[in-house]
Amino acid sequence: MTVYCVDTSALIAAWQERYPIENFPRFWDRLDAFIAEGRLISPDEVLRETGKRSDELHVWLKARNSMFRELDEPIQIEAAQVLARFPRLVGERKLRTSADPFVIALAKIEGLPIITEEKPTGSTSRPNIPDVCAALGVRPMSLLELIRAERWVVG
């Protein structure tokens, strides 16, 4: 069974745009079961980030705290290496966030695909998660790709 590492962008997109809980409760039930099974993980920074962007999602995630991994030394070292190679991964642009290098580090260390809704820029000088994944051999996946891979029926 595949374990997935999820990025803030995927959680926010699901909650606010694609699968609102009031319209797609089965999607969130599936996600909840994934979390309970230990099949969906993320670094602590993602929880912090959601707190800045969606109060309701943050409350939902905080109740599922088992999915979040502390930023232990191996994750911090790997994140520093990611940032050394891709310093513009975290930048001053409005949607740039601090969780990205930790998401990539956790996925790389554990050999996991990353669920993200970021699109590649095609440039390592202004990369998004998929650009860094391509360079590091980590598989990025969208929410829809996750749903298809796991054969969920949520409608």
Describe it for me?
It is a single chain. The protein is an alpha/beta fold and 155 residues long. It is 52% helix and 8% strand. The chain contains 8 helices and 5 strands; from the N terminus they run E-H-H-E-H-H-E-H-H-E-H-E-H. The mean pLDDT is 92.
Secondary structure: elements and pairs:
Blueprint: E1 4-6, H1 8-18, H2 25-36, E2 40-43, H3 44-53, H4 55-62, E3 68-69, H5 73-85, H6 100-110, E4 114-115, H7 129-136, E5 140-141, H8 143-149
Parallel strand pairs: 1-2, 1-4, 2-3, 4-5
Helix pairs in contact: 3-4, 5-6, 6-7
Name the beta content range.
5-15%
Assembly status: single chain
- Major β-sheet annotation: 5 strands, parallel
Show unreliable segments.
none
Class by SSE composition? alpha/beta
CATH topology: Rossmann fold
CA radius of gyration: 15 Å
CATH class: Alpha Beta
Figure out the total of helices. 8
Average pLDDT across residues? 92
User: Helix and strand string, N-terminal first?
Assistant: EHHEHHEHHEHEH
In total, how many domains does the architecture comprise?
1
Helix fraction bin: 40-55%
Strand element count: 5
CATH superfamily: 5'-nuclease
Within the largest sheet, what's the order of strands? Answer: 3-2-1-4-5
State the separation between the terminal residues, measured CA to CA.
23 Å
Shape: globular
> Would you identify the CATH architecture?
3-Layer(aba) Sandwich
